[in-house]
Amino acid sequence: MKILAINPGSTSTKVSYYVDGEIIKEQGISHSTEELRKFQNVVDQMEFRRDILLAFMKEEGIDPKELDAVAGRGGSLPPVSSGAYEVNDEMIDYLKNITQIEHPSNLGAILANEIKEQGSEKTIALIYDPVSVDEFEDVARISGLKGIERKSVGHALNMRAVAMKVAREEGLEYQNATFIVAHLGGGNTISIHHNGKMSDLISDDEGPFSTERTGGLPLKYLMPMCYEHSLKEMLRIYKREGGLKSYAGTSNAKKIEERIVAGDKELKTVYDGYIYQIAKGIGSLATVANGAVDCIVLTGGVAYSQMVVSELKKRVSFIAPIVAVPGEHEMIALSKGAERVVLGEEEMKAFQYR
To answer: Which CDD domains does the entry link to (predicted)?
Structure first.
């Protein structure tokens, strides 16, 4: 079985080649600012990135006609349930012409389809667990202001993958257990997985601050800023200039910890607050399952930090055992999702938005 996985990022395209479940080649192909600047929109980059992928495949001796599946990271689609979706004309049309959210992952399905077109009749193109996975219960959608609904937008691909991984390793069934998964990185997402569904999620704009995002802020003090800055500036502040970066001048958790160890007491208080807020987020989601949580999983880049993991264990291990699965696991998650579809272990769904 041969599978190609594609994960388009803002300045790179990650590509992995799997044969019979084993990774044969994985590469992050970087794109310079100058190369991308000539494209007005993300989808305009399709031919540029497709040609780079085809060149990679040629160099590595990967014949597209031998591929069983091409799996792309799912982009900014309407709310969908978790799992695999075949790339079809409606999905491509939505990503090219309808979605209002500019995100590099919008290219994932389009690129997968382009590679599939180079393949054989057996080759399928699919996405798996896009960022818009929404399995909220009705009560979870209530925001506190009529007309504004809480949305499920986050690191679904990585969070579901690590939850299923830990379930296997701990002798649990993902479909019958309850996990809280905290993805800790440039943006934080904390989710609860109950009986096979990601039933609630704290997104990066409403929960704990991260290395570079503000998280939820006190509205009374935030609203005056909105009159002093444009929407574009406010989005930049929330998404790129907030969180630890706003306090430390860097979003590098390792460098921040080095400064704390060297004696920076003010920064230690900020870092304690960062961990404190993550713990509060985990604790709040435990209430969704009435406290009956089987396992808490920490993932994302910051989960490599022994300082963060050990401090979180002190605060939330009374809820459930904690397992750290550091890093991002999108590529293996895409491959395994495609593998289950090819083997007939999981059904591929049809995407519709009309």
So the answer is: ASKHA_NBD_BK
- For the chain, which residues make up each domain, given as ranges? 2-135+331-350, 156-326
Q: How far from 241 is each of 187, 246, 320, CA to CA, in Å?
A: 12, 6, 33
CATH topology of domain 156-326: Nucleotidyltransferase; domain 5 (3.30.420)
Higher pLDDT, 338 or 38: 338
Residue with tokens 């961990």: 275
Is the pLDDT reported for residue 18 higher than 80?
yes
Cα(159)–Cα(39) distance, integer angstroms: 31
For the four alpha carbons of 154, 201, 240 and 306, in that order, the dihedral sign comes to negative
Tell the residue number behind the tokens 């989601």, with chain if given.
Answer: 285
Say whether pLDDT at 10 is over 80.
no
Q: Give me 101's structure tokens.
A: 């959210």
Query: Cα–Cα distance between 99 and 119 in angstroms, integer?
Result: 28
The 10s digit of each residue's pLDDT in 77-116 is 999 999 999 999 999 999 999 998 888 889 999 999 999 9
Gap between the Cα atoms of 185 and 327, Å rounded: 9
Q: What is the pTM of this model?
A: 0.89
Q: How far apart are CA 349 and CA 86, in angstroms?
A: 6
At residue 4, the pLDDT reads 97
CB atoms < 10 A from the CB of 73, how many? 29
Q: What homologous superfamily is domain 2-135+331-350 in, according to CATH?
A: ATPase, nucleotide binding domain (3.30.420.40)
Q: How many helices (H) and strands (E) does the chain have?
A: 12, 12
Does the pLDDT of residue 138 top 80, yes or no? yes
DSSP string, 84-103: EEE--HHHHHIIIII-----
Closest C-alpha to 14, from 340, 333, 330? 330
Q: Give the strands of the sheet with 295-300, arranged side by side.
A: 197-202, 188-194, 178-184, 295-300, 322-326
